[in-house]
Amino acid sequence: MIEEPSLLTIVRPAARRRPTAAQIAAFADLPTGFVVDAMDGRGAMDMAIKPVPGLPSRLHGPALTCDNRPGDVMALLAAPSQAQPGDVIVNAVAGWQGCAALGDRICGMARNAGAAGIVTDGPARDLAGIQAAGLPLFCTGLTPNSPVTSGPGAIGLPVLAGGLHVETGDIIVADEDGVVVVPFARIDGVLERVRQVMALEQALDARVAEGETGIDRVRAILDGPGVTWIG
């Protein structure tokens, strides 16, 4: 038999990794597609996680992770008191869809604590109240079913959310297309790659605006021996 676990396990702020202010600010206006391209086409959470209608659909900041058992929100309820201004609370519920992973009051509390927003791999409830709180929220949908507050839960430890490993201090970038996680150790490298991606995208945008109908790589394939033509 095992001992009863602690209701909450919390990593103190001094022991958490956090990007610099400059690193955080550098992601402010980057489209999620550019960030994913800078990570070789990977890094997006499950496509079901989208912005709640009526709320800002742009979000970025360092992750503060919350780990809950399915149907439980103990860690999330404690998260606002542990958040630093600008944190994105990542509320992991093991992808449980049977009840809400949060509601309007926790959104208001997180807003009051200065959080940039909340991302969860479960649904939400209390849409009108969530919209009134005004805090960006990315979730899998809406349900009136309510969770419990039994624990155990953890704040600041690694979680699995939306199919991705997320650690406190990773950068979260989210927009209408979805949610992207940039691992802490890759922040500077991704920012450098994003600059290259942006330059290529801007050059291609200009060519399309001028009437371009294809890309050079595909044109070379069409002109070469790798295509079988019929008729």
From TrEMBL:
<feature type="binding site">
    <location>
        <begin position="103"/>
        <end position="106"/>
    </location>
    <ligand>
        <name>substrate</name>
    </ligand>
</feature>
<dbReference type="InterPro" id="IPR036704">
    <property type="entry name" value="RraA/RraA-like_sf"/>
</dbReference>
<protein>
    <recommendedName>
        <fullName>Putative 4-hydroxy-4-methyl-2-oxoglutarate aldolase</fullName>
    </recommendedName>
</protein>
<feature type="binding site">
    <location>
        <position position="126"/>
    </location>
    <ligand>
        <name>Mg(2+)</name>
    </ligand>
</feature>
<feature type="binding site">
    <location>
        <position position="125"/>
    </location>
    <ligand>
        <name>substrate</name>
    </ligand>
</feature>
<dbReference type="GO" id="GO:0046872">
    <property type="term" value="F:metal ion binding"/>
</dbReference>
<dbReference type="InterPro" id="IPR005493">
    <property type="entry name" value="RraA/RraA-like"/>
</dbReference>
<keyword id="KW-0479">Metal-binding</keyword>
<dbReference type="Pfam" id="PF03737">
    <property type="entry name" value="RraA-like"/>
</dbReference>
<keyword id="KW-0460">Magnesium</keyword>
